[in-house]
Amino acid sequence: MATPHQSNPIWLLILFCCYYFILSEKVEVVEATRRNFFNPQSSDSTIVSSVYRTSYHFQPPHNWINDPNGPMYYKGIYHLFYQYNPKAAVWGNITWGHSVSTDMINWIPLDIALNPTKPFDIDGCWSGSATILPSLNKPVILYTGSNQEKHQAQNIAFPKNLSDPYLIEWIKPDEYNPVMSATGDINPAQFRDPTTGWMGSDGYWRVALGAEIGGVGMALLYKSKDFVRWERADKPLHSPRGSGMWECPDFYPVALEGKRGMETSLNSEDVKHVLKMSLGETHSDHYLLGRYDEEKDMFIQDNEEKEKNYRFWRRYDYGNFYASKSFFDAGKERRILWGWSNESDSKPDDIAKGWAGIQTIPRMVWLDENGKQLVQWPIKELESLRRKRVHFHDIELKAGGLLNIKGVKASQMDVDVEFELPSLEKAGPFDSLLALDPQVLCEKGNFSTQSGIGPFGLLVMTSLNKDELTAIYFKIFEAYDRHVVLMCSDQRRSSLRPELYLPVYGGFVDIDIEKERRISLRTLVDHSVVESFGGEGRTCMTARVYPAFLVTSKAYLHAFNNGSETIRILHLNAWNMAKPSINVAQDQFLI
Ligand SMILES: *[C@@H]1O[C@H](CO)[C@@H](O)[C@H](O)[C@H]1NC(C)=O
Ligand SMILES: *[C@@H]1O[C@H](CO)[C@@H](O)[C@H](O)[C@H]1NC(C)=O
Ligand SMILES: *[C@@H]1O[C@H](CO)[C@@H](O)[C@H](O)[C@H]1NC(C)=O
Ligand SMILES: *[C@@H]1O[C@H](CO)[C@@H](O)[C@H](O)[C@H]1NC(C)=O
Ligand SMILES: *[C@@H]1O[C@H](CO)[C@@H](O)[C@H](O)[C@H]1NC(C)=O
């Protein structure tokens, strides 16, 4: 992995700006460097092409990545660590890759921060979190190490040199590690992913981590006076008995009002707490809202009855998004969420591409006005990449209507549209048996012109003859007491390449459509990524797509309405997106 020279943050900034400028001029040139090659390991000669590589999502130059780890904002710099195999584009030999940024859009790659070098992490340095100890203004990392026996334990690491603005080197002191071991009833093969620490009013630090005891997943609680010696609390932070192993728990407060983020230790009448867990069995990130009862040292979820079965739990993202982690950005007083999106092609394709996995665009996260769900929105900084804009407003989309949106580079863009529904009368009946299965509802829809409201939405990554396309759309149903809004991201027609995984994603959008009569959709398209935010960020869906046409031709963008009721586009904005500098080695930087 490339190491930059040590330079001060001012230089960092100037370099960013220069490079930024050069790159914004180069957007169109990227296309010219495409190449394709045949994958010898695949029985079919699959096309694997660099056209699938993203331009403005976080990736290292090569190899496998998974979970975001230890994100933090420290002394003016954002740090992102990530699960990284420095040897190959498949999972294994896991280390902590490390990059720094001043805007979370442009990133400088650093040396690997944690390598498996000690008996307690020799089988891999797995996920964990960073905590900034306020009394010392010093960051610490807690991470999971897997040892020779493949037993998991939590370890601590400190920056070697606090004067180094990038915190390049980290030490793993032998005198403390491991700091939490799987004792008693804990399954040592399912004991991992410590959260950021929070301090209670008794002055003790707490962290939660994922564990399995007797086949049940839970967030165990550990306490410490000095952050170095930890003891397991009598009771878990939470264990609803509704699911198997919980990976990558995250626990943080959100303000009852407003979008302002909260420091992780904060607890008061004015906040709710979020407990997120990544469920191995569903490969998705679910969260519960509730309150943190400090006396009991437990998370008490709202709506206890309903929350016993994880199928009722809300999801951050109804698509390809896993092992997420949030942090409090003290610079801008907001909470930021990172998630990993894996490839949906095959392992031989990943090996042929030489890379696998991306981080989604960092999202700001806050509590919805209704207090019942979180809202997520791409960080404002992303808008600095917007270039040429195409704009439409007040357009009627009649039944079967299709609007071709010309003039935008549809494989690397940001599109934001607001639809208005003049009438809800034709909404079709809601099948309440599928109230827990929005994905099945989306699968049942077959795209053809139908009676009812919707499907209406966007067709992205569309080939000229439309034999390949990805549809992101809404459909409105009438339930006995209200209207239900369904959002789908349908990848079934996203690629003609054989044997690809082509899922349909679905989720409900919890808005009062009778009152609002309008719904927005923002979609970030970046080659193989289609990241969508419905209802102003109330329902999110990330998809990975690998259309064959992209190797030789350009992508198109359409708005469509296949319902029988006319829909209005109040406005639609689509921007070409510039390519920022993401993990480009410093020597290349200076060319
Ligand atoms: C892990 O590293 C070893 C040593 O370099 C290498 O032989 C092996 O292929 C790697 N495994 C994976 C899965 O990358
Ligand atoms: C610590 O980092 C600072 C700033 O980069 C550097 O000047 C100093 O030499 C480093 N100290 C050691 C012991 O490496
Ligand atoms: C990754 O991709 C595959 C499809 O290739 C999918 O089935 C799997 O659940 C994905 N997610 C994770 C977290 O591995
Ligand atoms: C798709 O839906 C339409 C209308 O609901 C129906 O007439 C048609 O048979 C369906 N097509 C398929 C392939 O299921
Ligand atoms: C809309 O319906 C038509 C006619 O049934 C169908 O050919 C087309 O694929 C549908 N559009 C979309 C976006 O699915």
From TrEMBL:
<protein>
    <submittedName>
        <fullName>Beta-fructofuranosidase, insoluble isoenzyme 4-like</fullName>
    </submittedName>
</protein>
<dbReference type="InterPro" id="IPR050551">
    <property type="entry name" value="Fructan_Metab_Enzymes"/>
</dbReference>
<keyword id="KW-0378">Hydrolase</keyword>
<dbReference type="InterPro" id="IPR023296">
    <property type="entry name" value="Glyco_hydro_beta-prop_sf"/>
</dbReference>
<dbReference type="InterPro" id="IPR013189">
    <property type="entry name" value="Glyco_hydro_32_C"/>
</dbReference>
<feature type="domain" description="Glycosyl hydrolase family 32 N-terminal">
    <location>
        <begin position="57"/>
        <end position="378"/>
    </location>
</feature>
<comment type="similarity">
    <text>Belongs to the glycosyl hydrolase 32 family.</text>
</comment>
<dbReference type="Pfam" id="PF08244">
    <property type="entry name" value="Glyco_hydro_32C"/>
</dbReference>
<keyword id="KW-0325">Glycoprotein</keyword>
<dbReference type="GO" id="GO:0004553">
    <property type="term" value="F:hydrolase activity, hydrolyzing O-glycosyl compounds"/>
</dbReference>
<dbReference type="Pfam" id="PF00251">
    <property type="entry name" value="Glyco_hydro_32N"/>
</dbReference>
<dbReference type="InterPro" id="IPR018053">
    <property type="entry name" value="Glyco_hydro_32_AS"/>
</dbReference>
<dbReference type="GO" id="GO:0005975">
    <property type="term" value="P:carbohydrate metabolic process"/>
</dbReference>
<keyword id="KW-0326">Glycosidase</keyword>
<dbReference type="InterPro" id="IPR013148">
    <property type="entry name" value="Glyco_hydro_32_N"/>
</dbReference>
<dbReference type="InterPro" id="IPR013320">
    <property type="entry name" value="ConA-like_dom_sf"/>
</dbReference>
<feature type="domain" description="Glycosyl hydrolase family 32 C-terminal">
    <location>
        <begin position="381"/>
        <end position="576"/>
    </location>
</feature>
<dbReference type="InterPro" id="IPR001362">
    <property type="entry name" value="Glyco_hydro_32"/>
</dbReference>
